[in-house]
Design brief:
This protein is mostly helical. The protein is built from one helix and no strands.
Length: about 100
């Protein structure tokens, strides 16, 4: 009977050891799977962040181009106004010069 009990204990210990090893292997596999999933999520988040940053930069560049175009248009209008005022005064300036030359 003692041999039978010892055999049962040995079998139970072997079964427990096998279960522990199986549980350890499953835990390791779950950990690896979780790490892979986390890495994929990280890469996806990084790609999304990069795409969002790129879009934000493009939007900012477009706004800057619009602002620059507006400033350039205003400067051209101001320049044209100065030219028109100068042309309006041109006849008067020519008249003054002629008067000074003639009066000498």
């Amino acid at each position: 009977m003692e041999k039978n009990a010892i055999a049962k204990v040995t079998e139970s210990e072997a079964a427990a050891k096998a279960l522990r090893e199986q549980a350890a292997a499953e835990s390791k596999q779950k950990l690896i799977a979780a790490q892979r999933a986390a890495q994929q999520e990280l890469e996806q988040a990084k790609a999304q962040a990069e795409a969002q940053a790129k879009q934000m930069l493009q939007d900012a560049e477009a706004r800057a181009a619009q602002t620059a175009a507006g400033v350039l248009e205003q400067a051209e209008e101001a320049c044209e106004q100065l030219k028109q005022r100068a042309r309006a005064n041109l006849d008067e300036a020519v008249q003054l010069i002629v008067e000074r030359v003639v009066s000498r």
